[in-house]
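Journal club prep — side note

Before the paper discussion, L.F. wants everyone to see what a predicted structure for a comparable chain looks like in token form. Sequence:
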Amino acid sequence: TSSTIGNNHRVDSSTLNAGNYSVYTSNSTGTNTYYILNNTMNNAYQYGAFLNNSHAIKFNNNIVNMRGINTATYGLYIINNNPTAPNFHEINGNKFTNIGYSGIYFATSSNSGSTMGQVYNNMISGFKYTSGNVGIYNASSSRWNIWHNSINLDFASISGTNNCIYLNNGNNI
């Protein structure tokens, strides 16, 4: 949807089929929380969910099954999300399959104050990218706890490196 104001959205218990993105958000208020819960996302071309700008993300108990023809896909892509404490990110209990490049990717998305983002109990598998795969990729994001995830690098890429977890800058991980 397109609007000038969008606060605290919830996408819950839905089946989302095809498209370039299954879910796309963009909001510049760090006090909002976007809830994406209990959904099945099938056959998105590029991103299962693309979550942009300053708001807290609760991405829990979703099944993300990407379209198999594109090898450079992302199950969950979080960028520029810096929630204001006491809000924090939570990515829990998701299953990412048929992934091209990365299951969970967060860039310049840090939690604030004493809060820590939580990434736990996720399953990531079914990689297809031929130049290296990454289960969870952190690019310049701080204040995250990453624990109890299962990442199966079941595809041997032709070149590049394969990483279950790749930490590129950021503090307090």
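L.F.'s comment for the group: DSSP finds no helices and 18 strands in the chain. Keep this in mind when we get to the figures.
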